[in-house]
Amino acid sequence: MDPSKGEGPATLPPAFLDPSYHPVFFFCSAGSAICPAALARTYSLAPLCCGSLSRERTLLIMFNWAKQQLANVAGTQEPIYGPTAIRSVAEEAAKTPFTELTRDGLKWTAQESTSVETQSFYIFAENGHVALAQVIYSNVAGIRTTCQFNCKVFYPDQSQPHLWCSTPLNNHEFSEDMTSFYADDCAVELSEDGTYYTIKSMNDERGIVNLKVTRSSPGFQAGSTGKTLYGTDLENPWGSMRHAFWPRCVSEGTITTKEGPIDFKGRSLFIHALQGMKPHHAASRWNFVDFQGPNYSAIMMEFTSTPSYGSTLVNVGGIAKDGEIIIGGAANTATHLQVKNDSENDWPEPSHVKYAWSGTDKDGKAVEVLAEGPLGDRVDRVDVMAEVPGFVKTIVAAAAGTKPYIYQYHPKLSLKLKIGDQEIVEEGTIFTEATFIS
User: Fold this and answer.
1) Quick one: pLDDT band at residue 366, thresholds 50, 70, 90?
2) Sequence ranges of the domains in the chain
């Protein structure tokens, strides 16, 4: 398909192919990507020769035409394939709960088809700050590739509004072995020995990032490949979802804001995520948990597929301590015990949660881990569509049924572990997200 020759399912506006054009991206859950601008820029409202048609009729034609173009390019209208068209990574994890990561498992895939790939670092500083540093690589229909760097800083006890910087990147490239990412004024590099990343960005003077994240436990992925597959022929899938984790890391370095540098010495989580398909087709809801304590770390990534794939629930995660993955796999649950309807959008915002992990450690001991309690006040609610033009927002909502919101929390919850006959209560820092897409 050569878009320059007018080929393809929809007419693309010139801005789509303009190298200076960059969309707006919103990402959450360390890879549960939502890209409204990628949907929006699929519209090309070609001139209509409406003659004597009324204004209302003209707008209706434009509206219906735009909906069809969105469906053609972004694929918002999808048949019901059912649960047989998805193979959860839980099937692999039933035989091989998890595998430790090698350097190959940290390579960027940089797919040439529609996909979103992220590397995300969640950092809990000893001084109480919480930060996200994230690189996003996005490909839309194999036609347009864009990259973005996101930085978010939450201040202790919400003493001041959080900092959010999201900057398009220019002239991206990868290292020869595809383990490091570079762009103008940005670099995310894996060390030669594969034990640490350096994250540097000077793309936004509001948040200049200079961090180092070193793993203190092995990395892992659920099952043998970490992948959930989508398609009617699962031997030749048309989509995939994968998450790879460094669940327990130490961090150092700074994020410099207009008030000066913030020290981010502390604990960290690293996640490499790939959605090898249209993000709004891959999942309709997400739960994400990151607990970091003095001795233990607990992480969880859960998504529910869209109804096209049977609303299938997939949950991957694990428990780690220094030098060891205690358990990992897909035998985890995230439960919203109490919810309250958000008056702005009617989503069931969680207020009381239960996160549970289970498995068997290397010595054959049963392991049960629980974090449960009230979430308290959210630290942020992200209206993903807020920056999309109103007309496009209406079309996307009508055509796709999407109204994505991300709810973020930073509560005080303890981690209760039972390893064999040993019971442990760990106090630490936790960050959670609940995302509703459609």
Assistant:
1) very high
2) 3-436
Rounded Cα gap, residues 38 and 388, in angstroms? 10
What tokens were used for 94? 């039933």
Contact 252, 261 (CB under 8 A): no
Alpha helices in 75-211 (DSSP H): 90-95
pLDDT band at 403 (very low <50, low <70, confident <90, very high): confident
The pLDDT tens digits of the residues spanning 144-175 come to 888 999 999 999 988 899 999 999 999 999 99
The partner residues of 415 in beta bridges, in order of sequence, read: 426
Cα distance between residue 23 and residue 168, in whole Å: 8
Q: Distance from CA of residue 99 to its chain's centroid?
A: 21
pTM for the model stands at: 0.85
Given this structure, which CATH class describes domain 3-436? mainly beta
Burial degree of 44 (CB within 10 A; 0-12, 13-18, 19+): middle
Element (H, E) at 299: strand 297-304
